[in-house]
């Protein structure tokens, strides 16, 4: 048997008191796709950063193709034949594809010769691996799928034969993800070794040969993918049995709570983000808005939440909501019964340097309960916060921690606790489980469904199709500021929704990937 | 206004634009690498003082210039250590440098020369001599273009020509070399540079030191070319006008040339006329002096196309996963 492409022995890494990696052993065989799965904070990214020379391990050895190597920086990793595709692409937005690929691997002090040679080599690589991309296109005009190809090409250009991909499908539509997996299969056939880091069980089952599971900094298991199933992996990840499906009764809908007619949003630079859309949400139902990030969903939420101005007509319980000027602000929205869990908890949902109890009061600090004359009644606010923290199982259950010191899932629970406990008539939720671990996802989903069952209306925006499919009672798909169609979860599937997300309404016929990608690139080009 | 007046105004435009241009290109290198530099003013000021002081003491303007450059580069290094190595706030570091320069130059000048915070007036070898461009004499007789060439373009000190040649040089370095590609990349997305295996800090230090060199030249020109010696606060806000020019130029070398010529022209105009009589209205020269700032605000407000600064400007680079 040949040497493993990568072998880690006893890798440990601590950040202060936190053990990010504890005594990790890992063997990745050449010519395979090896999945590494684990919840957020399980230490996957830290481990890969050590492999790519971003961090130095406190202890342990790295062997590449049987030779012990020292990887103090990225340069050394590149020399060892390791390439990495980061979750957040490391591309220079206003450079061309070619410039990005050459950056750091130039062949001489003058650009002309380097770029010329790179162009030839790039052509070869694109043909060999079917990674077609226009070398002279600017990154900012490319869709995310294309940008990811550039990242892969960057690694191949540096002659990487071990490729690490960190959560590569987070930003892709299902069809783009399928295409990526085909590319990975192709790379594998050419003898490359691929390490795929993800928290999505479906992907692991679909493409990997072997899978390693990480939990709390430790490698808990390595199994052949063919010999396992999603339930077992989820249990290994979380350490207990988890429900992968949301358990919910059919919706009992009542009268209409939210009615949106011809809503239009034009952003600061004059681009029309929401193009005269209409929708309604009834009591006791969850309307899920699916779509690739940047197709107007955020703007829709912001207008309804009072954070942005728009035109058109919006009715809440039959009464018009102002969309601009006086009374269109977030504070008034809250007063009339609109709760808002914003998409980005760190910038819009919380003040990271404030205590948990202060954060629980935000947006409601003019509530008479929290006030005593002109002064804040911090005592009452703290008591209230403690009750909410206990009820929503925020850990650690200490309201004197700053928001920054909670994990992503617990930060989100603080925001959810604040908004849900007000029992709003309409709850706007954006990306409720982005960067949240499986255990917390389960909890947050239960809370949202419970609010629905109380007869409240919920508008859910998420880029996670699984989440949309399992939570929603109705699904609307947005593309380029329009609603491409509405479906019932029972009558649709990922493929159909994926096509709608790419702006293709004719979902009965086969569509080529090029067509889909072209569509997406155009829309994101416009958006960028 | 006669033709002679125009030639004279153009001549002084070129002289006044030179320190702006050198400082502006200094800022361009620094900011293109992601390090915001509001300490241009301070670096020019120390360079002006040390070049004048050393020139006065040794009688050699070249030694003076070298001393000015060295002082400016030391200040650049301080800015670099504070904002690159220690990831401090670049604005605060820049402000500190301006204050340090303003106080230090006056203090040392008084201590060394006891002439009321100034250096002795420089003469002879201690000042930059003017250079005549080839055939200036011969061509001066040609109508219109002759005087323009002989009187406006010719007859400046060598640093003026260095400043103007620095424009194509900067353009070439930035857009035609590996160093330039990396420099532009590090100002846009240092993460991309780092993961490509290139040191972010080394690149930024290089950029900051180049800025120090160019500010050194600007300061040396101020004290030994434009004026004959150092006086208190002699930079008089030129570092800030250079920053304004940098924004006006959208961080591009050729645009920087035009921005600095325009701002130099405005200075020349206000130096020559106390009020500007446009027939119907009279414009006070304070307004002309304020125009660079007003124009910059107009540019920043987005009236004349968008001025997009380097994306990573002002943020210290911290490695993250």
From TrEMBL, chain A:
Entries under InterPro entries matching the protein: AAA+_ATPase, ABC_carbohydrate_import_ATPase, ABC_transporter-like_ATP-bd, ABC_transporter-like_CS, P-loop_NTPase
GO MF, any single term: ATP binding
Bilayer topology annotation: Peripheral membrane protein
Top-level taxon in the UniProt lineage: Bacteria
EC category: hydrolase
PROSITE patterns: ABC_TRANSPORTER_1, ABC_TRANSPORTER_2
GO cellular component: plasma membrane
Subcellular location per the Swiss-Prot or TrEMBL entry: Cell membrane
Biased composition annotated in UniProt, kind: Polar residues: 519-528
Chain intervals for the UniProt region annotation (Disordered): 508-528
EC annotation from Swiss-Prot or TrEMBL: 3.6.3.17
A UniProt-annotated Pfam family: ABC_tran
Coiled-coil ranges per UniProt: none
Keywords: ATP-binding, Cell membrane, Hydrolase, Membrane, Nucleotide-binding, Repeat, Sugar transport, Translocase, Transport
Keyword Transport: yes
ABC transporter domain segment(s): 6-241, 258-505
Family named by the database record: Belongs to the ABC transporter superfamily.
Protein name: Galactose/methyl galactoside import ATP-binding protein MglA
Gene: mglA_2
TrEMBL record, chain B:
GO molecular function terms listed in the Swiss-Prot or TrEMBL record: transmembrane transporter activity
Residues annotated as transmembrane: 12-30, 65-84, 91-113, 157-175, 205-228, 240-266, 286-304
Keyword Chaperone among UniProt keywords: no
Keyword presence, Flavoprotein: no
Localization per record: Cell membrane
Pfam families named in the record: BPD_transp_2
Chief localisation class: membrane
Any one annotated GO CC term: plasma membrane
Membrane topology: Multi-pass membrane protein
Record key words, sorted: Cell membrane, Membrane, Transmembrane, Transmembrane helix
PANTHER family in the record: GUANOSINE ABC TRANSPORTER PERMEASE PROTEIN NUPQ (PTHR43370:SF1), SUGAR ABC TRANSPORTER INTEGRAL MEMBRANE PROTEIN-RELATED (PTHR43370)
Protein name per UniProt: L-arabinose transporter permease protein
Originating species: Palleronia marisminoris
Lineage of origin: Bacteria, Pseudomonadati, Pseudomonadota, Alphaproteobacteria, Rhodobacterales
């Amino acid at each position: 048997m040949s040497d493993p492409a990568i072998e880690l022995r006893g890798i440990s890494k601590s950040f202060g008191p936190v053990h990010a990696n504890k005594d990790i052993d890992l063997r990745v065989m050449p010519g395979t796709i090896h999945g590494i799965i684990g919840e957020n904070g399980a230490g996957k990214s830290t481990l890969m950063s050590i492999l790519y020379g971003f961090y130095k391990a406190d202890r342990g050895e790295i062997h590449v193709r049987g030779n012990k190597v020292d990887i103090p920086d990225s340069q050394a990793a590149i020399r060892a034949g390791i390439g990495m595709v980061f979750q957040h692409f490391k591309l220079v937005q206003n450079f061309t594809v070619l410039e990005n690929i050459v950056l750091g691997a130039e062949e001489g002090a003058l650009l002309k010769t380097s770029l010329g040679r790179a162009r030839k080599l790039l052509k070869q690589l694109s043909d060999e691996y079917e990674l077609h991309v226009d070398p002279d296109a600017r990154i900012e005009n490319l869709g995310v799928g294309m940008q990811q190809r550039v990242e892969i090409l960057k690694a191949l250009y540096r002659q990487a034969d071990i490729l690490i991909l960190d959560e590569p499908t987070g930003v892709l539509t299902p069809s783009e993800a399928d295409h990526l997996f085909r590319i990975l299969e192709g790379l594998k056939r050419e003898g490359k070794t691929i390490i795929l880091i993800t928290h999505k069980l479906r992907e692991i089952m679909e493409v990997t040969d072997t899978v390693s599971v990480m939990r709390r900094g430790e490698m808990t298991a390595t199994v052949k993918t063919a010999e396992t199933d999603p339930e077992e992996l989820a249990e290994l990840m979380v350490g207990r049995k988890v429900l992968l499906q949301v358990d919910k009764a059919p919706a009992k809908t009542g009268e209409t709570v939210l009615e949106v007619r011809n809503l239009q949003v034009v952003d600061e630079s004059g681009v029309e983000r929401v193009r005269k859309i209409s929708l309604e949400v009834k009591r006791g139902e969850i309307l899920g808005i699916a779509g690739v990030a940047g197709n107007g969903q955020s703007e829709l939420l912001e207008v309804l939440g009072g954070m942005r101005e728009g035109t058109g007509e919006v009715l809440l319980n039959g009464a018009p909501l102002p969309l601009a000027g006086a009374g269109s602000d977030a504070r008034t929205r809250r007063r009339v019964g609109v709760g808002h869990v914003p998409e980005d908890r760190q910038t819009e949902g919380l003040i990271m340097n404030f205590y948990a109890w202060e954060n629980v009061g935000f947006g409601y600090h003019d509530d008479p309960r929290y006030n005593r004359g002109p002064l804040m009644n911090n005592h009452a606010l703290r008591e209230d916060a403690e009750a909410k923290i206990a009820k929503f199982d925020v850990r650690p259950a200490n309201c004197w921690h700053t928001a920054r010191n909670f994990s992503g899932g617990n930060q989100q629970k603080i925001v959810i606790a604040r908004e849900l406990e007000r029992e709003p008539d309409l709850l706007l939720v954006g990306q409720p489980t982005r960067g949240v671990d499986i255990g917390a996802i389960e909890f947050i989903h239960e809370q949202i469904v419970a609010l629905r069952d109380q007869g409240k209306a919920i508008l859910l925006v998420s880029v996670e199709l699984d989440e949309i499919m399992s939570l929603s009672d109705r699904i609307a798909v947005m593309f380029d500021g329009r609603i491409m169609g509405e479906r019932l979860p029972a009558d649709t599937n990922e493929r159909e929704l994926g096509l709608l997300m790419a702006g293709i309404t004719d979902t009965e016929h086969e569509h080529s990937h090029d067509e889909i990608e072209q569509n997406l690139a155009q829309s994101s080009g416009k958006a960028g | 206004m006669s033709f002679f007046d125009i030639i004279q105004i153009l001549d002084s435009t070129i002289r006044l634009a030179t320190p702006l241009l050198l400082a502006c290109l200094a800022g361009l290198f620094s900011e293109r690498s992601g390090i915001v530099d509001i300490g241009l003013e301070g670096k020019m000021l120390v360079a002006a003082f040390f070049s004048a002081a050393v020139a006065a003491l040794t009688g050699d303007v070249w030694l003076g210039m070298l001393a000015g450059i060295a002082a400016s580069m030391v200040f650049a290094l301080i800015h670099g250590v504070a904002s690159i190595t220690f990831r401090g706030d670049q604005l605060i570091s820049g402000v500190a440098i301006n204050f340090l320069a303003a106080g230090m130059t006056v203090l040392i000048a008084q201590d060394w020369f006891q002439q009321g915070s100034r250096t002795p007036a420089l003469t002879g070898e201690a000042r930059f001599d003017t250079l005549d461009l080839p055939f200036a004499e011969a061509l001066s007789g040609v109508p219109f273009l002759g005087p323009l060439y002989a009187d406006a373009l010719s007859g400046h000190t060598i640093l003026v020509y260095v400043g103007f040649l620095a424009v194509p040089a900067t353009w070439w370095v930035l857009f035609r070399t590996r160093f330039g590609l990396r420099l532009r990349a590090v100002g846009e997305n240092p993460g991309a540079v780092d993961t490509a295996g290139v040191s972010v800090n080394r690149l930024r230090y290089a950029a900051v030191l180049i800025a120090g060199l160019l500010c050194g030249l600007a300061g040396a020109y101020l004290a030994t070319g434009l004026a004959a010696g150092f006086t208190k606060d002699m930079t008089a806000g030129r570092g800030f006008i250079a920053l304004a020019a940098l924004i006006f130029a959208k961080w591009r070398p050729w645009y920087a040339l035009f921005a600095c010529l325009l701002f130099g022209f405005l200075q020349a105009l206000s130096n020559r006329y106390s009020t500007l009589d446009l027939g119907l209205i009279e414009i006070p020269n304070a307004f002309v002096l304020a125009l660079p700032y007003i124009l910059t605000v107009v540019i920043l407000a987005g009236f004349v196309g968008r001025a997009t600064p380097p994306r990573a400007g002002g943020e210290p680079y911290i490695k993250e996963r």
